[in-house]
Write a structure and sequence with these properties.
- By secondary structure, the protein is of the alpha+beta class.
- It contains four helices and five strands.
- It has a domain of about 110 residues: Fusion Protein Consisting Of Minor Coat Protein, Glycine Rich Linker, Tola, And A His Tag, Chain: A, Domain 2.
- The radius of gyration is 31 Å and the shape is elongated.
Length: about 170
């Protein structure tokens, strides 16, 4: 009888204690360290993919009016999408670093289906100062922005094997 009462009392204590600590993550087996639970980092938000309208191949146009119109549409798209990248601005570590301003010349290869061969290549930089005056990360940010905008271009289909353009992009800090 005494064992029975002791068993009921022990069972009641166990039930009143709630869930075991091993089930809640508060307990580790002997010899195993307890690792703190950290919240998972939020997934990185990717900016929406840039989509270009289908642009005419204005460099093949024999009519000067249509060629000018196509060139205007092309540069309106490029200038409307290109932004001065945040990575090219001075950081807390280098607050007095100069802003890289000037032009990048980017070579774009256009396939017969109208897509651009990736990635467009920066062939020349004409900056306000020597390239050695700017942090390398700032120059990489300018290159990446030019490649992002020009890599999204789409053109009408053509019978030409592949067309090559050199596009100037001007970056001016706002």
């Amino acid at each position: 009888m005494r064992n029975r009462v002791l068993g009921l009392l022990l069972g009641a204590l166990l039930l009143a204690g709630g869930a075991a600590r091993a089930q809640t993550g508060e307990y580790a087996a002997p010899g195993f360290p307890m690792l703190p639970r950290r919240p998972l980092p939020a997934p990185a938000k990717e900016p929406p993919k840039l989509v270009s309208p289908v642009l005419p191949r204005f460099w093949h146009e024999p009519d000067p009016g249509r060629q000018s119109e196509g060139r205007t549409r092309f540069f309106e798209f490029v200038s409307g999408q290109a932004r001065f990248p945040a990575g090219a601005r001075p950081t807390a570590a280098r607050p007095n670093a100069p802003l890289p301003t000037g032009r990048l010349f980017v070579r774009v290869l256009v396939r017969p289906d109208g897509s651009v061969r990736q990635p467009p290549r920066v062939t020349k930089r004409e900056l306000a100062r020597s390239e050695s005056d700017y942090p390398p990360a700032a120059l990489r940010a300018l290159d990446a922005e030019a490649q992002r905008v020009l890599g999204a271009l789409r053109f009408v289909r053509s019978k030409a094997l592949e067309d090559s353009l050199v596009v100037p992009i001007r970056f001016i800090a706002e």
